[in-house]
Amino acid sequence: MEVFFRNFHYRIFMMANIISAIGSSLFGIVFVIYARHMPHPSLAISIASVVANLPLLFDIFMGYLADQTANHYRQQLRNRIIQGGLFIVISISMLGRAQWAGFIVVLALNMVVSLIGSYNSYGAIPIIKDIVLPNDITEAEGFESGINATISVTGGLIGAALLSGLNYHYSLFALINSASFFLAFGLLFYVRKEFSKLSSSRVTVQKAVGIVAHVRQFFRQTRSNFILLKQQATIIQFTEVFMMINLFDAGQGVLLNLSFAHQHQLLIVNYGYTVALVGMVESIGGILGSLTPGRITRHLSISKEIVLIYGAYGLMTVNILFLKSRFLLLVITVVASVFTGILNPQVQGKMINDLPEQSIGSIISAFYTVVQLTVPLGSLIFAAVANALSLKVAWSSLLAFDGVTLIIWLVQRHHQIKES
């Protein structure tokens, strides 16, 4: 957080990003509420929920597009105008009674806004690398992660309350969202001269001509990015361990929900309250970890944090299998999420400092695309084991998975240290 107050350029840039993020977050919950008023609300809500996750599949393409940008700051300005304009169209589409034609238009436009937001995130990386000192990159990434997580947690509640205050006037609410992007544009436009001399504002990019050439270049660039990522020994180890952590976390999430339904001693008040409380505690822990000052997190190496996260996950499974303590469950959840919140910006900060600037967006997007693949896999595997065999077998399998992957990680680190 200190870098936010100490660095003027970073502060202005982040304020614009925060304003944009608030607009996007507020509309997320409102869109689901709007779907309830459709002729077939269950179908509309299901479609809205599925489409909301589709932009994640295009992350790697958004990273590629960001790296094909000659002037990242100008593109940030242009994208805010486009997002604000799209919300004006959404506002017009939400006038009158909810109908399927208007709903599909709003759904498609909202997805485009999300894709542009992803584009903005990857395009912002070279700018941040220009305006933040290398030693402050990790703290800057932690601050951004913490703020985004805070907005994600509170945005839905604030959006629902604001919509109620507007007497469920969806069109007016969309206009407020539009204003947030135009406000972010105004802030960035006001200080544009401060950023015009940055190297990220004067990038030499080889442009492909024609759709076929663009598609070929995308696949060629993506392949070379994965090759380059593979050549980074330390980062490829992070990729592997993050895949395992995500797989474990997804499996643990589904098994916890099943355990709450079958082991009443774990419940706090009731099932719904327990699920909500654990989710809230996990989010708060992640926010606290992300916002922990850099002077503290510098004393924690990435390797130590990974071991601590594995230890917390292992203790979680032991607690569910044998101790069944509600209090310990919440404590472990906080501890694991705090260390995860510290770890994520440290790894991203290392990548920003180590990777070549001309393809940093593509490579980081490739990294996150790969590590996110194990999330649905973890849920599917351990849910299947729990339903086919038993919860006890599923938790025992998860504990074994935790121990085996931790040993593999330690052996890899030992070999790497020995070779260096």
TrEMBL record:
The keyword Cell membrane appears for this protein: yes
Which UniProt keywords are listed? Answer: Cell membrane, Membrane, Transmembrane, Transmembrane helix
Give the UniProt subcellular location, in the record's own words.
Cell membrane
Membrane topology qualifier: Multi-pass membrane protein
InterPro entries, alphabetically? Answer: MFS, MFS_trans_sf
Top-level taxon of origin:
Bacteria
Any Pfam family matching the protein: MFS_1
The record, for SUPFAM superfamilies, names: MFS general substrate transporter
What stretches pass through the bilayer? 12-35, 41-65, 77-95, 101-125, 146-166, 172-191, 268-290, 302-321, 327-345, 366-387, 393-411
Q: What is its main location?
A: membrane
Q: What is this protein called?
A: MFS transporter
Q: Which organism is it from?
A: Levilactobacillus lanxiensis
